[in-house]
Structure formats: structure tokens, C-alpha cells
């Protein structure tokens, strides 16, 4: 909507100008901004996405999509083009001195995507933008944000477009404008942390002699080098050369410099050729103290950066978006108040904090040399022969266990009466095979993708009071939150003896919901649109669960 407002910034004497009103402004169209545009588009939220560059970056930068990001792409309905175009890397082969490598295998990850999907960032951005465009969404390119001012009525954003100044007013702003965030500077928000002082080399090259299906990582006293196989047979190479750490850092790198570094680091080197992209970069770890500044939210690299070990930076940005956008939509629809949006920082900040802690430690470990380096190699090799150690690494890298169950609010929803195996408020809901009445074969994730909020109520076909409870809850929930929550009956088995047929029925014939999610007769599992548990309650008490539902949307 375009309105003419007088003096929107309180700048006395300035000319009045047309202000474009929208619900949400996304600043930046990197992976985080593009994901946000897609999620808001899917949910029908009015938004504008402002990007200063004329086209997508051609730099490959991030190259790995972790399992959790693929699950989030599935909720968006965009998982298939990624899986089709990427290479499902089965894990890493780690050379810690000596001839025999150690392995971290991703098949340990309990997800439909037990691999690191290797695909360059420019293709990730292309897939996300195409998905958006196909559904009618657009990115406003060549719109550079110059100013952001928060007022009581909303956030005013000024952007420059081909020499013209444009003004916007939004209820919320997502700062997805990257590590050097302009919004952070404008709002005077600290980016707490430090540079790590190491210069890495990177590039996309061909290596005719290399035939690797695993990520191939070499760590020794001379430095480190990792090779990531792309689907077309070329490789991303990343590493650091101890002999090239002094002097000012350049961004550009020549192919011969890369060759020299690889020859220095590797015991048996490889010839690299046909570079598509080469460069040096430094690393740092930093995080904003609060992801929320009133109506402005910091997302992705604007909120946190870490070194590239484990390929996590972009992935945690995508997860930030998935956590935030449904909450904003819920508040915009009037189902929750502004404090509900505080849970974005509460849930997401600890995840980046842990990634920063781990990647900082890993970088220190990789830099060890001499005797400490030998100890690292010995301990690393011994540990990685154990399947359970590999499983811990694989799970941590995949992000499928980035649960939010430790936040004070989610803790307050924990139902201790449920079995120990029961998933509780804040935890990720793993996908399950379902026997849906009237269909052949269904899974839980597509239900979440189609419906958003999903509520499962476990009943017994021979206990009509539980069926009545489920119907009464569905009615009350619909009165309080019209058309928001889709309720399903989950029957342990047998025919459901009820005259009514409005609620769809899932038969827990495989006992997956019982065994894997800890559901039992009378329990209600309320699932959020990002695939985490809202709450799981075992009371079958209508007053109690309605109280919880209302308290959930503070
Ligand atoms: C060499 C390298 C290797 C990496 N490898 C990995 C990896 O393997 N795995 C991984 O997960 N991550 C990796 N990363 C990190 C990853 O690239 C970032 O985490 C990711 O790009 C962050 O996405 P973002 O959308 O938050 O920010 P960005 O990608 O930085 O996007 C920000 C966008 O905002 C726009 N913008 C900025 N200011 C304005 C403004 N004033 N007005 C309008 N638009 C603006 C920019 O033009 C840009 O398009 C790597 C990074 C580098 C540099």
C-alpha cells in the first residue's frame, strides 16, 4: 500500500513523500533473506525484500546443506530441487598424519537426509529465488538500504534505487544483510567477538587425479586442506598454509599460489586446474547480544558469524528464518502478542553460541603442531574408530539436534508425567511414517508442510471419552484461534467408534508415534510450523490443555 505521509522521520522541514507500507521488510537477499521471502510468501504475509546488488552473487561460498536445513526446505516445499542438484556427501575422510584415514560417516544421522548435500551457495540462492518467483514473490534488486528508524507505529526504511530515494514503513524488519550489516551499524548494535587471525585459501577447481566420494580432510604441522566433491566431479578446496600467514591479507589468489600451498601441506599433492573461483579469506566469530531490537530482528550472518569449519554458518541462518517467520505471521494475524517474538532470540541465540564455541575450539585443535599436534592425532584417530563417537560428530554437524527444550518457557511446558522417551516442548519432531485413514502411505513432515500447526491427539477406539475430549479440544481451539490448528486423531489401532468424522484419523499401526515420540492414550502433541514441539501434554484435561494453548501464545 502506498501512502503519503508528512515528515515520516521527524526531520523537520523535509519534504513529505510517498511511503510504501508493508507488514515485513527483509533487508538482504542472501540465503537468509531469500529463505525468509519464501516462508513469508508461503504464509501469505505481505513483505518487501530489498537487495542492494543487481544480481545474485556468483561466488560459491557455502557449499554444504545440513540435514536440518533440508528438513526445513521440506516444510517450505523446496527440498526436491536441492536433492536433485546436490551431491549427497556421505561424510568425511580425515587424514591425521599416518597412512590410514579416520572417518565421520553421516549415515548415523536420524533424518531422511543423512548426508551433507554439497551444492555451491550461488545454486542454493538460485533455487530459492526461482521457487519464490514461481509463486509470485519478487526481490527488489538494486535497492540499497540507507536508513532504518524505529517509531511507535513501525519501522521506517529508506532505500536508494537507481538514484531515487524510496521510503517504506513496516511492522517488522528482518535484517538479513550479512556479516557487515548496515542495520546493525544504524541501530548501533554491537557485534561481540573477535577475529581469529588465520588466513584461509579457498576455490572451486578440477583435480583430475582425485576420485573421492568423501570430503577429504588433511591436518598436519604444515596446515590443513579439505576437498569437497561436487556432483560434476570438480572440487571445492579450503585450507590454511602455515607458511603464508604473515603479511597483509589479499582477497585474490592465483592458481599457482593454491598449488604451492597444497604441495606444502600434502604429503602426496594433487595437480589443481581450471579454477572457477579462487580467494583468500579471514575468519572471525561474533554474535549480537540480542537478536531482537524492538521491531527489528537480526537473522543469519547479521546476527552471528563463525569460521567455516563444519560448514555451518549459512545453515544456522536458514534455521533462524524458519524459527522466526511463522512467529511473526502468528503475531500479525493477532493470535499472539509481541512478547511471543522474544522466543526467537531465546531459542536461536544459544544455537549460534554453541556453534561458535565448537568451531573456535576446532580451529584451535587444527592449529596444534609438534607434540600437542601428535596428541590430537593419536586421540582423534582412537576416538573416530568408535561408531558412537562418529555418531556424536555427525549429529552435531547435521543440526537435527538443535532443540529448544532448555529455554525457560519451553521448560515450563514440560509434562513430567509423560514417559521418558516422550518428546517435549521445544524439541525437534522427527519425521514419522503414518498410516492415514483413506491414504496409502503418508509421513508427518508433509502434513506440517501443508498445514503448519498440527495437533495429534492419541486416542483409543474403545474409550469414547478420549474421542469426545479430542472433538471438544478441536472446537475450543478453533474458537480461540480460528482455522489455525489442524487436529488429527491418532488411534492405537482398530476402528474408531464415533459417529463424527470431521477429524482425520491416523492409525499408529507401526507404533511409531508411541515408540519414537512417546505418545500414549490421552496425550496431545502440539507441533509448530517449524517442526518443533509446541507442547506435549498427557492429561486429557480440556481446561488444562486450553490453558496451555492460550499461555503458549503469550
Ligand atoms: C569463503 C566462504 C566459505 C563459506 N563456507 C560455508 C559453508 O561451507 N557452509 C556454510 O554454512 N556457510 C559457509 N559460509 C558462510 C556463508 O556464506 C554465510 O553464512 C551466508 O552467506 C550468510 O547468509 P546471509 O543471507 O545471512 O548473508 P549474506 O549471504 O551475506 O547476504 C546478505 C545480503 O544482504 C545484502 N545487503 C547488504 N547490505 C545491504 C543494504 N544496505 N541494502 C540492501 N541489501 C544489502 C548483500 O548484498 C547480500 O546479498 C562461507 C563463507 C565464506 C566467505
TrEMBL record:
Its cofactor is FAD. Pfam families: FAD_binding_3. Keywords: FAD, Flavoprotein. Coiled coil: none annotated. One of its GO terms (molecular function) is oxidoreductase activity, acting on paired donors, with incorporation or reduction of molecular oxygen, NAD(P)H as one donor, and incorporation of one atom of oxygen. This is FAD-binding domain-containing protein. Residues 21-359 form the FAD-binding domain. The keyword Ubl conjugation does not apply. The keyword Flavoprotein applies. InterPro entries: FAD-bd (IPR002938), FAD/NAD-bd_sf (IPR036188), RIFMO-like (IPR050641).
